[in-house]
Amino acid sequence: PAIRLTLVPTQRAYHLGGAQVTQQYRVQADCFGLTYKDAKEVGDAVIACLEPASGEFQGSFVTRDFDRQEVIDTGPVQCRVLEFLVTHIPA
Which residue, 54, 56, 66, 58, is CA-closest to 28? Predict the structure, then answer.
C-alpha cells in the first residue's frame, strides 16, 4: 500500500480588508493497493486521519471519492482517489 499526496492549486481568499485569516486548500490523496480492498482500506485510513479537524485545521471535507487503476512497472495496481477541501489558518 502507498499514498501520494498532491496539493491542488487554489486561489487565496480575500475580503475588503485584505486576505482572509482562514484559507482553503485542496489536497488529493491517491491511495494505492494491489487489490481493490487494499486501496479502499488505505483510503478509509486517510479519511479517518484528515477529517477530524483540529488546531490550525478548521475543517477537512471529502469532496471527491472515486476509483481507478494505474499500471506501474510490475503491473496494474488499484487506486482510490480522494480529494479534500481543507480550511486552514496559515502560520
Answer: 66
Q: Phi first, then psi: what are they for 44, rounded to 5°? A: -60, -40
Rounded to two decimals, what is the model's pTM?
0.81
Given this model, what pLDDT does residue 69 score?
Answer: 92
Neighbours of 49 (CB within 10 A): 11
Strands 23-33 and 57-72: unpaired
Task: Look at residue 46 in the predicted model and tell me its pLDDT.
Answer: 94
Q: What angle do CA 13, 19, 21 make, to 5 degrees?
A: 90
Q: At CA 44, angle to CA 6 and CA 72, rounded to 5?
A: 55
Distances from the Cα of 24 to the Cα of 12, 17, 42, 44, angstroms: 8, 18, 24, 22
The number of helix segments (H) and strand segments (E) in the chain equals: 1, 6
**Reduced DSSP (H G I as helix, E B as strand, rest coil) percent helix, strand, coil of the chain, to 5:** 15, 55, 25
